[in-house]
Design brief:
binds zinc ion, single chain, elongated
Length: about 200
């Protein structure tokens, strides 16, 4: 399955600097992993869900919504090959007809076709709509509007923040630095987020 830069799990993971370890997507783990990391003292709880407990025969625990790692994580800010990141780099715009499409309507187009030795990499692939990709075929006289390139981590973070993000708990808001108009707390309406930010 393709890893989306908006894939979100239960518990946000902060680095020692109180920033998410990565922002593509904001680093998160499922609640079982979070509780285990706290139990093993690999992380400490920063916030808990107010309305989510888990029960074992001997105890009741609140599920952490935000944890912080014990040891600083040195995160290599290199963007791995991923089609989702490609379309984000190209602003969901077909690089031939320059129309904007939903991600699901976009394809990868090898600028130097594979049959001519073109590689599957950011330096050789652009986003294309299905019809343009089909029309182009192996005709290398048709060139994309913008030459393909390897995007930087920060470029993609900046572009990612122009898109909506749904988070599972409002305790995340303060750590994401995400534009408030694009941030939604699951189960709450947008107004609640605004009030939280204004407080
Ligand atoms: Zn097109």
């Amino acid at each position: 399955m393709m890893k989306s830069f908006r894939q979100i799990r239960d518990t946000l993971v902060l680095n020692r600097d109180m920033m998410p370890v990565s922002m593509l997507p904001p680093t998160s783990v499922n609640w079982q992993t979070a509780i285990k990391a706290v139990f093993l003292e690999q992380a400490q709880v920063v916030h808990e869900y107010q309305d989510w407990d888990v029960h074992s025969p001997s105890t009741t625990l609140k599920v952490p919504s935000v944890i912080m790692v014990r040891d600083y994580v040195h995160f290599e800010k290199v963007i791995p090959w991923n089609e989702s990141f490609l379309h984000l780099r190209d602003d969901y715009t077909c690089q031939y007809c320059l129309r904007v499409f939903p991600e699901s309507h976009l394809t990868q187009d090898h600028v130097v076709p594979r049959k001519f030795g073109g590689r599957t990499s950011y330096e050789n692939i652009v986003s294309a709509c299905g019809p343009c990709n089909h029309k182009r075929g192996h005709n290398i006289k048709i060139q994309p509007h913008r030459a393909p390139y390897r995007p930087s981590y920060w470029e993609l973070v900046k572009k990612g923040k122009t898109l909506p993000l749904v988070i599972p708990d409002r305790s995340w808001v303060d750590y994401l630095d995400w534009p408030e108009e694009n941030l939604f707390v699951r189960g709450e309406d947008k107004k609640v987020v605004r009030m939280k930010l204004a407080a």
